[in-house]
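# nightly structure sweep
# worker-07 picked up a monomer target from the shared queue
# config: single-sequence mode, recycle default, output format = structure tokens
# input follows
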Amino acid sequence: MRQTSPILRLICTALAGVVLSLSVAQAQEEEGLDIGDAPVIMPADPADAGTIERGLDGGGPDNSGDARALDRNARDSAPPVVKGAKVSPDGGKEELQGINIFLRMGTPLPELPLERPFADEPDEAYGAFQRGLFLTAVDKALPRAQLGDPAAQTLLAEIMSRGLGVKRDPKGAAFWYAQAAQGGDPAAMFKYALLMMEGRVVEQDKAKADDYMRRAAEAGNASAQFNWAQILVSENPGVRGLTMAMPFYEKAAEQGIADAQYALAQVYSALKEIPQEKKNRAREWMERAARAGFDTAQLDMGLWQVNGYNGPRDYEKGYRWLSIAAKRGNVVAQNRLAHLYINALGTAPNPVEAAKWYVLSRRAGLKDVGLEDFYLGLNEDQQKQAIDQANRFRRG
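# output follows
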């Protein structure tokens, strides 16, 4: 019978964020990188929340841009570029040859690739689980679980742990997770490793938990791959740990784990001794994490775009990403967005909108001397409008 397990995507967050931040910072020191030019792992230090550097061209593939500070480029000195045209070497303009979507309408699409024929028996228990027929799933999974089928044991454990159609039973679920883990089911090994790390339902056992997490990661479980990478980073700070963890971050990122995509973007930025083609993908991974809804990735993606870090500078895209993160409640993004409105970077200048975002970030505890001076320089009516808009945003 086909071995099919439910998808278990519980991420162990205790090791995320701070561990990666500290390890990347140490790696940057070991690699001889300027920490000021390092990517922002965690929200920026409130002490430099309002820093804006004004200088020459702000970096590109050589990472000379600063991912932390907002940076006004000498953009007015650049040659004019019009939409739909590019500037030729002799100063003239050439029309861009793009795809006309209307000309594509009605064009036959390529054939879909052939699917591999399914040769195994369908898993009736898991099929019932997918359709929400949880008692039917229990009836079909229990006999198989008692005979030692790891996939059925994992399915039964998942139903019991979540109380789906049956009384929630954490200890009973732990028993079946343990049985399935011993039988080699990757999802069960991951879940049972978490239970042993927590030490609430089963006895805490770090060595056994690490062994199961590693085996689950090596067997292809995406969540285990991310968590095992985090464990490697926490136990091996600096370049060594990031290098050891990178293959597992890569595998988890490819399987769509946004936390891993974010971590991979930071690792590619921090390490020197990796192929250039990987470094060139740092911004791609950051954007994928941002598109998945990871607000810290949205913040960093906005800062990378504004500062030309790990790729070309694009104020408008930077503004859009910071705006998304700010509207989702990211305090640092709200602070940075205020600076964009003040300095007209990627958006039209708007003092009231700038003050609104500053008020929101200040209420959350992020102090900024520069923005405070700006706010106090507004007239009474503008301050009132900003406070009213901030209050409406909070209520919304």
